[in-house]
Task: structure prediction
Amino acid sequence: MRLMGQNWQKPQGPDGWPEEDVAWITPQGVSARLRWAMSVPQVLRPDLPDPRQFVVDALGAQAPETVQFVAASAESRADAIGLVLASPAFQRR
Amino acid sequence: MRHELSRRSLLARSTLIGCSLAASPLLTPLSFAAAPWDTRLVVIILRGGMDGLDVVQPYGSPEFSEMRGALGAGSAKGAFDLDGFFALHPALAPLMPLWRQQQLGFVHAASTPYRNKRSHFDGQDLLEAGTSTLEGARDGWLNRMLQNLSGVETHTAFAIGHGDMQVLSGAAQVAEWSPDSDLVMTPQTVSLAELVMRDDPEFQAALAEALLLSKGSDEVGMMQNRDGEMQMSVPAVSRGKAHVKVAEFAAEQLRGDTRVASFSVNGWDTHSKQGRTLVPALNRLADTILTLQTELGAAVWQKTAIVAMTEFGRTVRVNGTGGTDHGTGGAMVLAGGAIRGGRVYGDWPGLAEADLFDRRDLMPTSDVRAAAAWLMRGLTGVDIAALEGRVFPGLQMGDDPGLLL
Result:
């Protein structure tokens, strides 16, 4: 969680975790989110959903075209789910 | 079905194993009844669509170099001649000693029944389900083989990896294990991540910098830090070695009572710059096979058959970005002391335009399920009626190709 920019139960000040882009959209943050998103869901739920349906469930029918394309064309289900979860469209929701 | 340890059996074992139980990641059992067969079968799923034409290059075909451009150089680009017609990709050089000992072979122009849709997920589902269509059965064909054999215990078969081995899922008991670290992002996944970040300048910049920090390899190495968090290894530390751990673990189990192991080797989706992007996946495949050979030891290796199969092959022609796209006919890789290697199996369909599937893909001349069925038949004695009726429903196995010694 610290790598992703919000240290678990330890905000830096009484105003909570900073929400400005620079505070959490960092190289370490993006890579940590990407890795988490690609590795953890399949451990929690081995029968991953079809990524082509998941992108619609997660982001609605208006999901950005690039996210829909990536969800349909990744090499494996785990990679596809991870790319949807790590996408700016999902992360900024 | 995952084997659940009951509280009672856990307590009973704890008394015997004592303190060491806490340190064991596996709750290793004291003993298991051995399955009634003694051979070993390793099934490797190559996710992403391996380009059989680049791995086992038909350089003797007059159309090959013309259609493949720089990719199709055959022995001129360092590929190893196999039999005067086919040559092996240079990155598989470490496997040439196995070829010469006739412990490495291939089935060319083979495919699943999957046609024309070109989706990785559907292609992998069909490959692992072993059915003719995606309707119906959701369990995997390796599991159904176990269901048709007697004496199967929990550790007779091992699914290795992160719960993605549908080929082994189903009603028969199967043990599972996954390595704890060192995941890699394949070249294609990196380029898709770049694509998905492209419309958001902050994300794009952050990813670009993260990738720059891990530069120096074609793959982004990841490691787990002390807090258990995933992070990019900067610089990449022991990157990409998860596959070696997987192979070591598989070998350790197969030296004991385990008879079947299955896991994935990913990274075959080479849409661009294939001359470079295919190499890491080939390195992993070679490492995996050689690690199995070393760790199994000579005696077990002699009764081991490894088969690596992919969801589809790739287009015969090279695309505009120096890669290949999703195709149809592909190649299977066979290795092990039990394999009658040193030859390329399969009827070669030719590469003239009229010989291609849809005028773009290698024409499949055999079903990957038939080769897998003959391997299972020879290794475990499972009968042909069960293979054609239940393991691969509706499959015609045809004549025995003699893949095993």
